[in-house]
Amino acid sequence: MDLISVNNSEKRKLIQCLLVCEKHEDCFYQALEAIGDLKTNYSDYMTTEPINCDEELKRSWAYSRRIDI
After folding, report:
1. Contact 27/59 with Cβ under 8 angstroms?
2. What is the pTM (predicted TM-score) of this model?
3. DSSP labels for 31-47?
4. 37 vs 8: CA distance, rounded Å
5. Per-residue confidence of the chain (69 residues) as pLDDT tens digits?
6. What span, in angstroms and rounded, lies between the C-alpha atoms of 60 and 68?
7. CA-to-CA distance for 59 and 69, rounded, in angstroms?
8. Of 36, 40, 39, 14, which is closest to residue 27 (Cα–Cα)?
């Protein structure tokens, strides 16, 4: 799939459209892949070793609240 160049406002609109449509997993993956935001290398983002799921989820939740998409 070819990457498309979009700004944060366009990404927000795309994600909002996906949320109101029928939720098909493939649509989400394809859209995130097309805009270059699909992440599959999860271990690169983990900070605890061995992985502590509770801590990683807390960190992920806190981080997501600081981002303005």
Report:
1. no
2. 0.49
3. HHHHTT-----GGGG--
4. 11
5. 556 677 888 888 888 888 777 767 778 888 888 888 888 887 777 777 788 888 888 887 777 777 543
6. 14
7. 18
8. 14
